[in-house]
UniProtKB/TrEMBL annotation:
Species this chain originates from: Hyphococcus lacteus
Record keywords, A-Z: Cell membrane, Membrane, Protein transport, Transmembrane, Transmembrane helix, Transport
Domain of life: Bacteria
Name of the protein this chain belongs to: Biopolymer transporter ExbD
Residues that span the membrane, as ranges: 20-40
Lineage, opening ranks: Bacteria, Pseudomonadati, Pseudomonadota, Alphaproteobacteria, Parvularculales
InterPro entries, per database record: ExbD
Location in or out of the cell: Cell membrane
Length: 136
């Protein structure tokens, strides 16, 4: 029988593991998840929405406008006057032209203000505007 001599190396350089391909894959996956993820946008104020029996669930909207119980209008955590709603929505539409809008009006807010806000949004050319309610 023939014997083999097995030599043990003392930790030479040929034992290193190349992690460059692993890092490439991790960065590609990170970029993929960032590009495909949707971010939750908050209007900037907590709203108590009115109840509705005819409420239907919708997909996430890209533009959220909130009207507080004190008749304050909030877009992207920023309080805006009624006259500035149109320009703010136009700026947000440039970011996402195919987006939709949702108005979250507090149950104690004035209906007239809600209608005026919806009119300001529709004047930008955005026809898909919904009013957020709670399901009964």
């Amino acid at each position: 029988m023939a014997r083999r001599n097995i030599s043990q190396s003392g930790g030479g350089e040929d034992e290193d593991v190349n992690v460059t391909p692993l890092l490439d894959i991790v960065f590609i996956m990170l970029i993929f998840f960032i590009v495909t993820s949707t971010f939750v946008k908050e209007p900037g104020v907590e709203v108590t929405r009115p109840f509705a029996e005819s409420a239907t669930e919708r997909k996430a909207a890209s533009i959220i406008v909130a009207i507080s119980d004190k008749d304050e209008i909030w877009i992207n955590k920023e309080q805006v006057p009624l006259e500035a709603v149109k320009t703010m929505v136009e700026q947000l539409r440039r970011e996402n032209p195919k987006g939709t809008a949702v108005v979250q009006a507090d149950a104690k807010s004035k209906t007239r203000l809600l209608v005026e806000v919806v009119n300001q949004i529709r004047s930008t050319g955005l026809t898909d505007v919904a009013v957020s309610t709670e399901d009964v």
